[in-house]
């Protein structure tokens, strides 16, 4: 159980690019990174508007001299300080992830970057190469994967409880953008503009989350080929989709589907991952993240609860408050952040093998998300055809 003990030697001096006042995800990053004292916020280029960014940094308690007008100035100034930041989080719109992460790595910083990591696989592989060459960690903010019951699902697959995996169904289909809300919402406006969002909207913005969760639960499944169709039900969003369906075939013979949507009118998140094996199935739903449904053929369905002693030990490792009390998104993100910190310290100690068994969404997961989106877009734009995955 996590009880507030920090497992690293010191808090990592940390900065942020983006995540400024009023941003959607900035607060979640700060809450997760600061929760257990693994990171210490020292600097920021929080906002496109330098004045607003500076005011916000001061409001957060930062030294005004370390609230920078832009990320380039921040990386240069912090590199020159003996007490400069060691890690930076990139929480800006998608089009900036590649240049900012690249600049950070070249400045010798570890990075925690938002998803999708980049627009293209070539860019993501470039970041992977730079990080590997310099011994730096890149974490990717697939925050839901820090929920403890995902670990339990992975263990139930690994220990054979479900039998041979046959079917994976993924869904992240909310209804918040059923109408053209982007007229009044800047954070939605950039999401439906290819110049800022990249080659996709919901595929990259939403579907990469359950895609990564499925990779955690079923690490042995490799996609062999996929077929995607995508639609812009709010026509002004074309060419970006607000709804998409993907069929996948894995090289084990298993099959998968993914439905992702921002126009699932009436739905909240509806992010669900269901894995079906020859003996039974598990299903996780992000609106009830403390539960995992386990169904064994011929037996009554069971609802497993977070924190209970019948779970696998690995699924109890991140428990903070015992069973019964609900844990949520902030805790899931904090679970990833302590692993990011452990990975960063191991790399700085020159002992990356220390964290070889530690599960967290790193650069490989970031590359994979971008690669998947690229294949989906290629399939959809060719008329919904099967494309080999490579
Ligand atoms: P937002 O539009 O609400 O906020 C973006 C923030 O970045 C603003 O404060 C803006 O001023 C700042 N910014 C933009 N360009 C900048 C630059 N060059 N330098 C410094 N600051 C800059 O966007 P939101 O919704 O917070 O999304 C940001 C990223 O987080 C996106 O990539 C999005 O896909 C991702 N996201 C991830 C979630 C997750 O669950 N992992 C959930 C929500 C968003």
TrEMBL record:
Gene3D superfamilies from the UniProt entry: Dihydrodipicolinate Reductase, domain 2, NAD(P)-binding Rossmann-like Domain
Segments crossing the lipid bilayer: none
Any Pfam family the entry gives: GFO_IDH_MocA_C
SUPFAM superfamilies in the record: Glyceraldehyde-3-phosphate dehydrogenase-like, C-terminal domain, NAD(P)-binding Rossmann-fold domains
Xref: InterPro entries: Gfo/Idh/MocA-like_OxRdtase_C, Gfo/Idh/MocA-like_OxRdtase_N, Gfo/Idh/MocA_oxidoreduct, NAD(P)-bd_dom_sf
Domain Gfo/Idh/MocA-like oxidoreductase N-terminal: 12-142
Boundaries of every Gfo/Idh/MocA-like oxidoreductase C-terminal domain copy: 155-387
Top-level taxon of origin: Bacteria
Name under which the protein is recorded: Gfo/Idh/MocA family protein
Source organism of this protein record: Paracoccus angustae
Lineage summary: Bacteria, Pseudomonadati, Pseudomonadota, Alphaproteobacteria, Rhodobacterales
């Amino acid at each position: 159980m996590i009880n507030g003990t920090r497992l690293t030697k010191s808090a990592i001096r940390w900065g942020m690019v983006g995540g400024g006042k009023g941003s959607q995800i900035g607060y979640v990053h700060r809450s997760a990174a600061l929760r257990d004292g693994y990171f210490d916020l020292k600097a920021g280029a929080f906002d496109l508007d330098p004045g607003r960014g500076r005011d916000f940094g001061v409001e957060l308690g930062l030294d005004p001299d370390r609230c920078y007008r832009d990320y380039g100035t921040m990386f240069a100034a912090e590199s020159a300080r003996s007490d400069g930041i060691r890690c930076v989080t990139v929480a800006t719109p998608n089009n900036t992830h590649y240049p900012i992460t690249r600049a950070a790595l070249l400045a010798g910083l570890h990075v925690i970057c938002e998803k999708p990591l980049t627009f293209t696989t070539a860019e993501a592989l470039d970041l992977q190469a730079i990080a590997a060459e310099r011994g730096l960690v890149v974490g990717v903010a697939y925050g839901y994967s820090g929920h403890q019951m995902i670990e339990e699902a992975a263990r139930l697959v690994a220990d054979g409880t479900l039998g041979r995996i046959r079917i994976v169904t993924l869904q992240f289909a909310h209804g918040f953008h059923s109408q053209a809300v982007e007229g009044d919402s800047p954070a939605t406006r950039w999401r439906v503009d290819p110049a800022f969002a990249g080659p996709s909207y919901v595929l990259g913005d939403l579907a990469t989350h359950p895609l990564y969760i499925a990779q955690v639960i079923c690490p042995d499944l490799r996609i062999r080929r996929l077929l995607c169709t995508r639609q812009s039900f709010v026509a002004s969003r074309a060419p970006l989709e607000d709804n998409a369906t993907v069929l996948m075939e894995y090289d084990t013979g298993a099959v998968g589907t993914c439905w992702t949507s921002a126009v699932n009118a009436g739905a909240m998140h509806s992010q669900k991952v269901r894995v079906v094996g020859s003996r039974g199935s598990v299903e996780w739903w992000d609106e009830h993240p403390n539960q995992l449904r386990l169904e064994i053929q011929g037996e009554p369905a069971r609802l497993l609860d977070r924190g209970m002693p019948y779970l696998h030990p690995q699924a109890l490792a991140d428990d903070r408050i015992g069973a019964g009390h609900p844990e949520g998104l902030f805790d899931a993100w904090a679970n990833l952040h302590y692993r990011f910190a452990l990975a960063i310290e191991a790399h700085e100690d020159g002992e990356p093998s220390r964290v070889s068994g530690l599960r967290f969404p790193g650069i490989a997961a970031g590359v994979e998300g971008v690669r998947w989106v690229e294949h989906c877009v290629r399939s959809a734009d060719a008329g919904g055809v099967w494309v080999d995955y490579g």
